[in-house]
Write a structure and sequence with these properties.
- The complex is a heterodimer of chains A (194) and B (173).
- Chain A has 194 residues and is mainly alpha-helical.
- Chain A has nine helices and no strands.
- In chain A, α2 packs across α7 and α7 crosses α9.
- The two termini of chain A are 26 Å apart.
- With 173 residues, chain B is mostly helical.
- The termini of chain B are far apart.
- The chains are: A mainly alpha (194), B mainly alpha (173).
- At the A-B interface, α2, α3, α6, α7 and α9 of A face α1, α2, α4, α5 and α6 of B.
């Protein structure tokens, strides 16, 4: 059983809250600080989800714009990273759905931007594990919901409670999804594991 | 059974094939997500269960593969673009406000148009208010009734209601 969430009032993330207040008050340097602190994490999450650098950059930019507008609603109950990743995942899900609809339109000509999604259903893993592992290829072999939890766990190093907060899921569901995602990866990459 | 992982056990474990009931907990153990007593208990179990020990090694290998893997780096150009987001945010807000105002103006115009169309029949001379119908072939004379009243009043000697007749109280010159 995973650690149960604390029943006491969660402590506020004072440093993040202070940064948010500075941004709210119009301090331009504060927003630069936010970008410098979080843009790499946001980008790696976005590119792992969407599979394309250009799409990921657009998603991060959109997220930061949204964050700037809504910074007044940040209350410090979650960390700023968790708060920002929630926006990334929310917008990323919408972007993927939009891309799926677009992909359905041309029947005979799949778009060049759908490589990552097509790989979801291709179990070829040999290319992924060569001299160096291509994380994108590894994650692309998973379903969306398994990919999401592993991106947050393995790449962002988030706890189950934090992942639950980002994805709006119960911690128990996060735990079982991570377990299943790893079982899936183990099957696909069995030849490269002890 | 010591472990209580209802979700994992029901969905993923095939106990009938003799799979170790601790095995589903290895993933959470690997992530350091078990509470203290269970963490200790699993550590003890791992020393005597080869299956679970192998499972842990595989999970560690997977994590290493993901850790060592390459993700495309964030370009400095993109980083600069992100920093400029705050500068463009007010413009975006203005555009949003302009869109909102346009939508509001369109809604007001539409409502006013509908109201005018509905109430046009209530005005004198408006559609549906006249006595003449399409089927009536007689030419319509708007002064017809007042003239008839005026001539009738002259024949009977009663005070005239025609506008050209002087009122009875007016001084005669």
């Amino acid at each position: 059983m995973i650690r149960t969430m604390s029943s006491t009032q969660p402590s506020l993330h004072e440093n993040d809250l202070a940064l948010a207040r500075r941004i709210r008050s119009g301090d331009g340097a504060a927003f630069d600080e936010l970008v410098d602190r979080f843009s790499h994490d946001l980008f790696s999450a976005a590119v792992s989800l969407l599979g394309r650098v250009a799409d990921a950059e657009d998603l991060v930019q959109d997220t930061l714009l949204d964050a700037f507008r809504r910074i007044g609603s940040y209350e410090g109950r979650a960390s700023l990273k968790t708060w920002l990743l929630r926006i990334v995942f929310y917008k990323g899900t919408k972007a993927r759905a939009y891309r799926r609809i677009r992909r359905m339109k041309p029947i005979d000509a799949p778009g060049p931007d759908d490589d990552a999604d097509r790989q979801l259903h291709s179990p070829h893993t040999a290319a992924a594990v060569e001299s160096k592992v291509d994380v994108m290829d590894m994650l692309a072999t998973l379903s969306t919901e398994h990919r999401e939890v592993l991106v947050l766990r393995e790449l962002q190093k988030m706890s189950y409670d934090e992942i639950a907060e980002v994805l709006s899921l119960p911690p128990g569901t996060v735990e079982s999804r991570i377990f299943r995602a790893r079982q899936e990866l183990k099957k696909r990459f069995a030849g490269y594991l002890p | 059974m010591i472990w209580n992982f209802p979700l994992l056990l029901e969905a993923d474990m095939d106990v009938s094939q003799g799979e170790c009931p601790y095995r589903a907990a290895v993933s959470s153990f690997h992530d350091g997500e078990l509470d203290e007593p269970r963490q200790r208990e699993l550590q003890v179990h791992l020393r005597r269960c080869a299956d679970c020990a192998l499972e842990l090694k595989r999970l560690e290998a997977l994590s290493s593969m993901l850790d060592a893997g390459r993700l495309p780096p964030l370009s400095p150009t993109a980083q600069r673009r992100f920093r400029n987001v705050a500068a463009f945010a007010p413009q975006a807000r203005t555009i949003r406000l302009a869109r909102w105002l346009t939508a509001a103006a369109a809604a007001v115009f539409l409502t006013a148009s509908i109201q005018l169309w509905i109430h046009r029949g209530d005005r004198p001379g408006g559609a549906g208010s006249g006595t003449q119908t399409v089927d009536d072939p007689r030419p319509h004379d708007p002064d017809e009734t007042p003239i008839a009243d005026w001539s009738r009043s002259h024949r009977t000697g009663s005070p005239a209601s025609h506008p050209s007749t002087l009122p009875a109280s007016a001084p005669a010159r």
